[in-house]
Structure formats: structure tokens, C-alpha cells
Amino acid sequence: MSAVEERLAELGLKLPSVVPPLASYQPAVRSGSYVYTSGQLPMVDGALPATGKVGAEVSPERAKELSATCALNALAAVKSVIGDLDKIVRVVKVVGFVASAPDFTGQPAVVNGASELLGEVLGDKGVHARSAVGVAVLPIDAPVEVEIQVEVAD
Fold it and tell me: Residues near 36 by Cβ (< 8 Å), separated by ≥ 6?
């Protein structure tokens, strides 16, 4: 077990299986020293635990939790490409999409769920640049979607 996966276990978390693509794409690809994930939904055991717009059907607090689930799914996608999460040099960028009710403006706080999980799991390697974007709708009515870009060692 890698040190990263040991840290996940200390936090009471387990790396899930890679979420199968919903369309024609790969969950993650490597280009040189970087791995780019596709947008990861907060799938748990093949299903969304919540659907709808944040600020309407989904509370910001629940959406923050779901954002962390997205980040965990992104780490699983990274592992599927590099084999060992200890090869992560650093998380370079996180982009979070939040399906938002028309008057909801708390997207950064929602995406903090992903950012905080990456920081807890990876320490300084998890510090990253980030965008948090409000959108009208996400695939299969997911409340949040997160993609990450990581630098990896050979």
C-alpha cells in the first residue's frame, strides 16, 4: 500500500474503483510528466448519492462533501494511469463545476471539499491553483464535478 493510500486509511477513506466513463473519453491520460483527469462526478458504488442544484435541492454543505468524493474519484483515475499515488509530485490545478441554483454564489466554498481533501491526503503536494465555476446543469444531474491535473515523477 502506498503512503498516500495509508494516509487515506488514516482518514477513514478508501480509494474507490475508477468510475467508468459515461461517454467517449478516458478517466485520465498522461502526457509527459502530467496526468489530466476527466471531470469526476461524486459517484459512489456506481450511483450518485444526490442530484440537483446546489442552493436548491442540495445544500452547500452536502455539495462540499460531494466535492471531496469527486477528488477521491480523481485520485483513483490518476492511480489507474501511474500505478502508485506516491509518484505524485504535486497537484497543479483543480477545476470544480457546481450545478447552481440561479442565486447561488458559494461555488468556492463547495469546491473547498475537493481542495481540502487533496491537502489532507497529500500535504504540501496537494496545494494547487484552482477554478470554481457555477454552471446550469451537469451530466446526469450531478451537483458537482471536479477535474485535477497532477505532476508525476517517473
Answer: 28, 29, 30, 147, 149
